[in-house]
Design goal:
427 residues, six-stranded mixed beta sheet, alpha+beta, three-stranded antiparallel beta sheet
Length: 427
């Protein structure tokens, strides 16, 4: 009996080691972004019959964040969106039944936030910016037209003129714009963009909007970018990470006075970040600061002096910059490649490293082909003790500034070795 017990313990230990190794291997090669936690928790609340519109909105924000940062493919986003549409319709119907429709009708003020499905345009902060600015700093338009250049800006003006939208309209704030311009834009844009080399599928937005009272409408896409912009603010002795997180959390409650003030602040900051990504990212491309080889590009911001460097300390901002650089460079070079960005050093001399794959892959999980090359390059450049994995995400690391140059050189060598021996960091 004792020998059998020892055998069972040995087998159990071997199984546990095998399991641990499988988990470790999985997270070495996967970026770890599947179903958003917000959606998972909403489904739990729904199973317990404890969900409401606020829980639905949190799930929508989680799904939208994955979509914006290309952590899931469009087909998976659509599947989750359709699932959430059913919940939105059900809850809105229940709320309608609770109110006196005959007395208030459809014009009643919404004294609690309501979620509404929309079919709109993927133009960030359109209702809180100008139409021209929303076009100039839209990811798809900026990468195709190179809107950091004067020629790209003129191309946007030409596109809007072809849509018969006068300059005084598209350069005016949304509230000053003629009410007929937005529906005219939604009607005519799909027929016009193809002649300018744009993809309508990348400019339309099927998603959700938060309504509150009669004059507040906030697309989920804008809400996500405002919150991430608040989270990405530089840390200072007076502004701790805990303070930043709490203020970003308060942005989830626009129905409160403090929440509305912080959300407004987040929206303005998100617009500034969008401008910085296009202008500074475009400048890096123009100056040929994005370097590399077949299948791999990188940008070292740690050793470059540039305007607004403090905006690029946070990995979420760096990730958006990396996606922009990858797609803009692919448009310029007529070839695709994965891309790595090293951010500028913070007050502790720490630099974030973020990587993006060559392009979207089909399926729920976006694997990280740089996981093993990253680890090899970090170890081979002598960074032992000088780096750490920033989160569970195997595509984001933190490294000390003095190690950056050696790391970038080693990364090029490691990727080249992978390609020589037939391995790949491409799709």
């Amino acid at each position: 009996q004792r020998s059998q017990a020892r055998k069972r313990r040995a087998e159990s230990s071997a199984e546990q080691l095998q399991h641990n190794q499988a988990v470790e291997d999985y997270y070495q090669f996967k970026a770890g972004y599947g179903k958003p936690t917000a959606l998972l928790l909403f489904q739990l609340a729904h199973s317990l019959q404890r969900e409401d519109n606020f829980h639905i909105w949190l799930a929508i924000l989680g799904v939208t964040d994955q979509f914006i940062l290309q952590r899931v493919d469009p087909a998976q986003y659509t599947q989750w969106r359709l699932e959430l549409e059913d919940h939105v319709a059900q809850h809105n119907m229940e709320e309608e039944q609770e109110e006196d429709i005959e007395q208030y009708g459809n014009n009643r003020a919404k004294h609690r936030p309501t979620v509404v499905r929309i079919e709109g345009l993927r133009l960030a902060f359109l209702k809180r910016w100008t139409l021209c600015s929303s076009m100039l700093y839209n990811h798809h338009v900026a990468t195709r037209f190179q809107t950091w250049r004067e020629a790209g800006k003129k191309q946007v003006d030409f596109l809007l003129s072809k849509l018969n939208i006068r300059m005084e309209q598209h350069q005016a704030s949304f509230t000053s714009m003629h009410p007929a311009v937005e529906p005219h834009l939604r009607e005519k844009l799909p027929q016009t963009v193809a002649t300018f080399g744009l993809n309508w599928e990348l400019l339309k937005y099927d998603g959700f909007e938060l309504h509150y009272k009669n004059d507040f409408k906030l697309p989920a896409m804008d809400h996500v970018m405002a919150i991430t912009a608040m989270l990405g603010r530089p840390r200072t002795p007076e502004r701790t990470p805990q303070d930043i997180f709490q203020e970003a959390l308060d942005c989830l409650y626009p129905q409160t006075k403090e929440g509305m003030a912080l959300l407004t602040k987040g929206i303005e900051r998100a617009k500034d970040v969008a401008v910085q990504i296009v202008e500074q990212g475009g400048l890096a491309l123009t100056r040929k600061q994005v370097q590399g080889q077949r299948g791999f590009w990188y940008l070292d911001l740690a050793n470059i002096s540039f305007t607004g460097h403090h905006e690029f300390h946070h990995p979420s901002t760096l990730l958006k910059l990396a996606i922009f650089l990858r797609d803009a460079n692919a448009q310029r070079m007529k070839s695709t490649a994965g891309l790595l960005v090293v951010g500028p050093p913070n007050q502790n001399d720490d630099c974030y490293i973020v990587t993006v794959r060559e392009k979207h892959q089909a399926g729920i999980m976006q694997s990280n082909p740089f996981a093993m090359p990253l680890l090899e390059a970090l170890k081979d450049c002598g960074a032992t003790g000088g780096y750490m994995q920033a989160t569970f995400d195997s595509s984001i690391f933190v490294i000390k500034k003095h190690l950056v140059t050696a790391f970038c050189e080693e990364m090029r060598a490691v990727v080249s070795a992978y390609q020589t021996c037939g391995a790949t960091v491409r799709d």
